[in-house]
Amino acid sequence: MTTKRKAKIKPRIGMPLLDPLKRARIFSEVSLGYRAEDAVLEAKRCLQCKKPTCRKGCPVEVDCKSFIRMVAEENFREAFRVIKDTNSLPAICGRVCPQENQCEGTCKLRPTGQPIAIGRLERFVADNFYARTSCEEETGFMECLLPDENLKVAAFGSGPSSLTLAGFLAARGVKVTIFEALHEPGGVLVYGIPEFRLPKSVVKREVDSLKHLGVDFKCNFVGGMSVTVDDLFADGYKAVFIGVGAGLPKFMKLDGENLVGVYSANEYLTRVNLMHAYRFPEYDTPVPKGDKVVVIGGGNVAMDAARTAYRLGASSVRVIYRRTKGEMPARREELEHALDEGIELEILASPLSFAGDANGKLQKVTLQRMELGLPDASGRRRPVPVDGQTFELETDMAVMAVGTGANKVLTQTTPKLKLNNRGYIEVDPATGETSMPMVFAGGDIVTGAATVVQAMGAGRLAAKEILGRLKKS
């Protein structure tokens, strides 16, 4: 009796990267993107499953199977249309979304270790498609409805949830105005994610496409202070979306955290990204540049801060994390890129205190050696101190990347909004509506720190609900 041999799974097409020795001190984008021939070869690996699971893994439900088939057939324009049907920001998602936990994480080839590189293909399509109109750029179709000035919707914050909402509604004839507290639109996409991971030009392209659709951006407007929810309804807006993120820095309440040289990751990355410090000497931004830098934390923000510090001239950068390398929440890709560039890890360690000189400048950090104990609520083994084992590291700059919380500026001026015990806005999970009628919310201000595409999913959910109600009225 003969048995059929299983077809050998072809390996994924690798992503071309800048050489680590060249890129470690510059802010050019690390990942270079697929060439057309690479994209087609990768797309042809797709099994085109009868019951694709990849779409269910995507928070905005991109029809991965169909767009990949279009790439394999070299019909890139149609591939773009399929993606844009549900995803307003594919060039961004293709770069920063954790596909390994989402679409690629549910790919039928995942058990082989060679899932289809869906994120890389999405980026390829978005980067190489040139729309004939701004409406086609936003929706994949040539024509958009003219905006109805009587159907006005406002959004607070210009991050991924608000941008998605604005694109969906504007393409369907609703006038959208976005109020942004900072001087440039883009939210966390601009101030939080470094140039070497997400070029500002990519974000600008997405924002410009929305402007061409008629979306108004009003920068330097602080939600809750410059303008309130009640102000907007009084001005004739029919619905309000709150997508202000959760950018309130967290510290660990350690001795010495107020020393000169200790920064939150939010402040540090915002100075570098939003004030263009990465373009020195064209911009002479007053940004701190440490020599011996430590970064506290193990997530993507910690990796961003560490790699940024090294690019700004640090002689050494150490990421201090209380668990092991395998348990770091950062994307594997970003962690490996950081290590390739010369970033060092100090694992199973947690800061106890900071010490400085007579002028209040940071000089050293004292660390507690940790070991792993029993699993905690997250399912990961809990880090516990090892008795009597502490040590010191010399450092002149420390970046705290230990999470963020909800900023109260808007919520404290909107007392009718129902919040949970962590200060985040409560919404109806089916619609995104808050406790206030026709006030919706999404993104990190609802969920706490999450992914770009999850925020986009929340913006899309709210937009569909708002549109349905406006069209009925």
Question: How would you portray this structure in words?
Answer:
With 473 residues, this protein is α/β, with parallel strands linked by helices. The protein folds into 3 domains: 29-130, Alpha-helical ferredoxin (Fumarate Reductase Iron-sulfur Protein, Chain B, domain 2, Orthogonal Bundle), CATH 1.10.1060.10; 136-246 and 407-472, 3-Layer(bba) Sandwich (FAD/NAD(P)-binding domain), CATH 3.50.50.60; 249-404, FAD/NAD(P)-binding domain (3-Layer(bba) Sandwich), CATH 3.50.50. It is built from 16 helices and 15 strands. The strands form 4 sheets. It has a 5-stranded parallel β-sheet with strand order 3-2-1-4-15. A hairpin with a 5-residue loop joins strand 10 (349-356) and strand 11.
Topology:
Blueprint: H1 20-23, H2 36-43, H3 64-72, H4 76-84, H5 90-96, H6 118-128, H7 134-139, E1 145-156, H8 160-170, E2 172-180, H9 188-191, H10 200-212, E3 216-219, H11 229-234, E4 239-242, E5 248-249, E6 262-264, H12 265-274, E7 292-296, H13 300-311, E8 316-321, H14 332-340, E9 344-347, E10 349-356, E11 362-375, E12 381-394, E13 397-400, E14 404-405, E15 439-441, H15 444-447, H16 452-472
Parallel strand pairs: 1-2, 1-4, 2-3, 4-15, 6-13, 7-8, 7-13, 8-9
Antiparallel strand pairs: 5-14, 10-11, 11-12
